[in-house]
Structures are given as structure tokens and as C-alpha cells.
From TrEMBL, chain A:
NCBIfam families: MlaE family lipid ABC transporter permease subunit, perm_MlaE_1. Part of the ABC transporter complex MlaFEDB, which is involved in a phospholipid transport pathway that maintains lipid asymmetry in the outer membrane by retrograde trafficking of phospholipids from the outer membrane to the inner membrane. Probably responsible for the translocation of the substrate across the membrane. The gene is mlaE. This is Intermembrane phospholipid transport system permease protein MlaE. The complex is composed of two ATP-binding proteins (MlaF), two transmembrane proteins (MlaE), two cytoplasmic solute-binding proteins (MlaB) and six periplasmic solute-binding proteins (MlaD). One of its GO terms (cellular component) is ATP-binding cassette (ABC) transporter complex.
TrEMBL record, chain B:
It comes from Dyella psychrodurans. GO terms for molecular function: phospholipid binding; phospholipid transporter activity. The gene is mlaD. It holds the Pfam family MlaD. It comes from the Bacteria. The lineage of its organism: Bacteria, Pseudomonadati, Pseudomonadota, Gammaproteobacteria, Lysobacterales. This is Outer membrane lipid asymmetry maintenance protein MlaD. Residues 40-118, 159-237 form the Mce/MlaD domain.
Length: 257, 290
């Protein structure tokens, strides 16, 4: 009996979290006009979540492309189709790996620090102090970080994809000896700019960016104001973002295809 | 102030880099890279079967890209495809009796339209028409001629050995089936290189039940399917004498390289022909050919 009520409690708590998260999204969106006064803060956050994530994104993109090139080459060699490695490499990076891996890295690199920062602001009563000084904390703290994530993710994803293609090129063409012209011409023949790059890379990664930064900001903003609460909130950001990315990826792929 | 400036510069750099990557992806790795459109003129061609041809597929003469497929539509009231080709203005001297053919680039590659020049002195103009076309021929149809079926023989009643020499065994391996009329009658027992004649000596173990095989039969190495394994096919001859243990098959046909086969098809396709679009209307039934 008690275990059943606890289970109901968990369901109700989860539903409550999702609902609160949705309402929080509305507050963030409503605060966008007011946050235009703090555009410098948005730029600072863009620097923090975007430009500071460049190294990890580019290095990971390079290695993902390299290992993908290696794997594809050996699989395609079974069928004597190594000439298709450029096509397979670019399509798998654009359609799936680019947005998803960038999203997971972004959640780990930028989402956590946003949650921890806002959570610490909450724990040290800085947010309450802002309200006292008639500064809207949503417009000054939440919205700039949300917008920065929304803008940074597609850009990071483009760089991830470019590095991935470059890494795959290094392995398949320079190392394993696939013909350079075949690699590029098969790629250009099969990659469609709307279907694969705009739909696959830009829309998907923008959606992931919005979801990750919403979760990160929400978890930080609603954290219990203790050091333990901040720790939990940071963990929840990574877990919830990862699940949201992979689930949303399926839904978006089904819609955008 | 200097700190603030550094993050502003860094953010700007980040945004510029991001858009540069996007521009690179969009222009260098996508189909936009192929669709540079200078001044072009349009020519129609009608095909009985376009296979996997897509819009924006290249149009080539002698392998050189001269334009692209602009649109593909079903010709009104007929079961032929109306393909509009957009060809660069600089290649304006294409004879009117040229032949448009749909080819596949490589085994897994995309299809493109190849144009072989005719001998006419007049050239096709904007809005013109290629009267002579040759449609795509499904790879399955070509390969179905070489495909066998069936598994290995059970060899319960004992076997007898027969030898044959091949100049090239391809990827034939020991244990591969030996088939007659598509039915497995034995297996490959050994493959050795002949040190004197410099070819491959293959020994088959053939089931004793099949002891009526004429001794002038031919042995050929075939491939089952596109990426299947290779097997030996026995084609019976007309001799009254049967094969005995230790005999040698004199008539052999070595493993064909798939590249050779396809090369032959492409070459014969480009030189042999000028089918009218309506000429091979409904030949696209690969499964019906087995």
C-alpha cells in the first residue's frame, strides 16, 4: 500500500516537474523583450557556453569522424563499396551523430555549469537580492542563458560536423586510400542541403540547444538552496538532458524525414 | 574593460567560425557544389525506364559533366518518363542524333545520363529533343543470368574425384558447392596452383549418384548473387561416355570479374545502341527471368 502511494507520488512529482518546466519556458519566452536590455549578458553567456565549448566539440568531432571513417571503410570493404564511404560518413554525421553527440557534450560541458551557477545564486540568495533591487531575475539570469544555448548549439554542431568530415577524410582518403575525387563527388551527389543540412543539422541542433538550456536553467532556478541540492540539480540536468535529447531525436527524425 | 573586450571578440570569432562551418558544409559537401548554374539550355529526352535517376543528377559526355537533370515527369498519356536535361551553354554543339543513355557510376553509385554523339551536322537547340534513348537496365537482370541456387550435396553414397584447370579461380574456396542445373552435386575438395602450367588445379568430389555426367562437360566458376560466394557449375556436354574417378574436365571457364562483366555491359550499351524509348517498354521484371 505504502509502496503504491510512493509510486503515485513519483508519477505526480514527475508530472509536476514537467509542468513546472513548461511554465518556466513560457516565463523565459515572455521575458525575452525585457532581456533585450541585458544583451551584453547574453553575449557573455554565448561566450561562456559557446566559445568555451569549442575545444571539446572540435576535438570530439575530429575523433568521431575518424572512427566512423575507419568503421565504415571496413564494413564497406566487405561489399567492395569503399567508394561510398564519403556518402555514408557525411550522411551519418549530418543526420544523427552531429546533433546528438554535440547535444550530449553540450549538456555535459555547458548545461552543468549553467545549473551549478544559477543553483549557487539561488543558494546564496543572490536571486532574492535581485528581486529586492527590482531586477527581474528571469530576464537577467534565465533568458540570456537560454538564448545563448539556443544560438550556440547550431553553431557548435556545424563545427562538429565540419571536423567530423575532416576526420573521416583523413582516415579514409589519406590513410586507407579511398580515392579523393570519389570521396567528395559521392558525398556531394548524395547530400541534400535542405534535407540533410538545414533539417538534419540546424533544426535538430537548435531544438536540442533549446531543450538542454531550458532544463539546465530550470534545474538551477528551482534547486534546493543547499550544497547538496545544487549537486542533485547538476546531476539531474545531465540525466534529463540526455534522455530528452535521445527521445526528441527520434521524434524530430520521424517528423523531419 | 579589457576582459569584457576579450569575451566580445571571442564570441564574435565563435559566431563567425560557426557560420563559416555552416557555409562550408552547405556549399562544399552538399549537392549545391554540383549545381553551379551558368547559362544553360534545355533538351528533352524520353526513357522507358529511368531506374534510380534523380533530379540534379549529372549529364555527361565522355565522362565529363556538361549539365544536370532538371526535371523528371511522366509523359502525359504514355508510360514513358519525360526527362528534361539542362546543359551548359558552352557545350552547345551536340548533334541531334545523339543517344542519351542512363548509366550507373560504380556498383553502388548514383545514376547519370550519358550522351554519345551521333554524326549529324545539325545541333540540338534550346527546347530540343533527343529522339534516341537507352533506358536503364536493372543490374539484377544482368546478374540473374549468372545466379545459381541450392546448397551443398549430402554425399551419402560416396564421392568420386574429378579435376579441372582454371586460369583464375577468383575467390573460390575449398568446400564451395559444385552445381549442375543449379542443383548441388558435390563440393570443391582442393585448390592447388599448378607449378608447371601456372594455372589452378581444382579437384571436385562429386556424389556417386551423379555418375552419368558426360566426359566432355564444361566447368565454370560463377558467383551467386551480387556479393555471394563463388561456386562451380558443370554444364553437361553431349558425349556418350561418363566421367570416372580421376578424370579431368578439359573445358573450363574461369571466374569472371564483376568489373569485366559490367564493363562489357557498359561498353556494349554505349556502342550498340539506339533503342527508341518505346522499344523496350515493359522489360523491367527481373524476378520473372529466373
Amino acid at each position: 500500500m505504502s509502496s503504491q502511494s510512493r509510486r503515485e507520488n513519483v508519477v505526480i512529482q514527475t508530472l509536476g516537474q514537467i509542468g513546472a518546466c513548461g511554465l518556466f519556458l513560457l516565463r523565459i519566452l515572455a521575458a525575452i523583450p525585457r532581456s533585450m536590455r541585458h544583451v551584453r549578458e547574453t553575449v557573455r553567456q554565448l561566450w561562456f557556453v559557446g566559445a568555451m565549448s569549442l575545444t571539446i566539440i572540435m576535438v570530439c568531432g575530429l575523433f568521431v569522424g575518424m572512427v566512423l571513417g575507419l568503421q565504415l571503410y571496413h564494413v564497406l570493404a566487405i561489399f567492395g563499396g569503399t567508394s561510398a564511404s564519403g556518402t555514408a560518413l557525411s550522411l551519418s554525421i549530418y543526420r544523427e551523430l552531429g546533433p546528438v553527440v554535440t547535444g550530449l557534450l553540450f549538456a555535459g560541458r555547458a548545461g552543468t555549469s549553467v545549473t551549478a551557477e544559477i543553483g549557487l545564486m539561488r543558494a546564496t540568495d543572490q536571486i532574492a537580492a535581485m528581486e529586492m533591487m527590482a531586477v527581474d531575475p528571469i530576464a537577467y539570469v534565465a533568458t540570456p542563458r537560454f538564448l545563448a544555448g539556443l544560438i550556440a548549439m547550431p553553431l557548435l554542431c556545424c563545427m562538429f560536423c565540419a571536423m567530423g568530415i575532416f576526420g573521416g577524410y583523413l582516415v579514409t582518403v589519406d590513410w586507407l586510400g579511398v580515392d579523393n575525387g570519389t570521396f567528395w563527388s559521392n558525398m556531394t551527389a548524395n547530400v541534400d542541403v535542405w534535407q540533410d543540412i538545414i533539417n538534419g543539422v540546424i533544426w535538430k541542433s537548435a531544438a536540442f540547444g533549446a531543450v538542454i538550456s531550458l532544463i539546465a536553467v530550470f534545474q538551477g532556478y528551482t534547486t534546493a538552496p543547499t550544497s547538496e541540492g545544487v549537486a542533485y540539480a547538476t546531476t539531474r540536468t545531465v540525466v534529463a538532458s540526455s534522455i530528452a535529447i535521445l527521445a526528441l531525436d527520434f521524434v524530430l527524425t520521424a517528423f523531419l524525414m | 574593460m579589457s576582459q569584457r573586450k576579450s569575451f566580445a571578440v571571442g564570441t564574435g570569432l565563435f559566431i563567425v567560425l560557426g557560420f563559416a562551418s555552416l557555409a562550408y558544409l552547405a556549399t562544399q559537401t552538399s549537392s549545391i557544389a554540383n549545381s553551379h548554374q551558368g547559362a544553360a539550355y534545355r533538351v528533352d529526352a524520353q526513357f522507358a525506364n529511368i531506374g534510380q535517376l534523380k533530379e540534379r543528377a549529372p549529364v555527361k559526355v565522355a565522362g565529363v559533366r556538361i549539365g544536370q537533370v532538371q526535371s523528371i515527369a511522366l509523359a502525359p498519356g504514355k508510360d514513358v518518363a519525360d526527362v528534361t536535361l539542362s546543359i551548359d551553354k558552352q557545350y552547345s554543339q551536340i548533334p541531334v542524333d545523339s543517344v542519351a543513355t542512363i548509366y550507373t557510376s560504380g556498383l553502388l553509385g548514383d545514376q547519370y545520363v550519358g550522351i554519345q554523339f551521333g554524326g549529324a551536322k545539325t545541333y540540338v537547340a534550346d527546347g530540343g529533343h533527343f529522339g534516341l534513348t537507352k533506358s536503364t537496365q536493372p543490374l539484377e537482370e544482368m546478374l540473374s543470368k549468372f545466379i545459381g541456387g541450392g546448397g551443398a550435396a549430402d554425399a551419402i553414397g560416396g564421392t568420386y574425384a574429378v579435376k579441372a584447370n582454371f586460369t583464375n579461380v577468383g575467390t573460390l574456396s575449398v568446400g564451395a558447392p559444385v552445381k549442375m542445373a543449379g542443383v548441388a552435386i558435390g563440393s570443391v575438395a582442393s585448390i592447388k596452383a599448378d607449378p608447371v602450367k601456372l594455372d589452378a588445379t581444382v579437384t571436385f568430389d562429386i556424389d556417386k549418384r551423379y555418375n552419368q555426367i558426360p566426359d566432355d562437360s564444361a566447368a565454370a566458376i560463377f558467383t551467386s548473387g551480387l556479393i555471394g560466394s563463388q561456386y562451380v557449375a558443370i554444364q553437361p556436354g553431349g558425349s556418350p561416355n561418363s566421367l570416372k574417378d580421376g578424370d579431368q574436365l578439359v573445358l573450363t571457364q574461369s571466374a569472371m570479374q564483376l568489373e569485366d562483366l559490367i564493363g562489357k555491359f557498359l561498353v556494349s550499351g554505349s556502342s550498340g545502341g539506339s533503342n527508341n524509348a518505346s522499344g523496350n517498354g515493359s522489360s523491367n521484371t527481373p524476378t520473372g527471368k529466373h
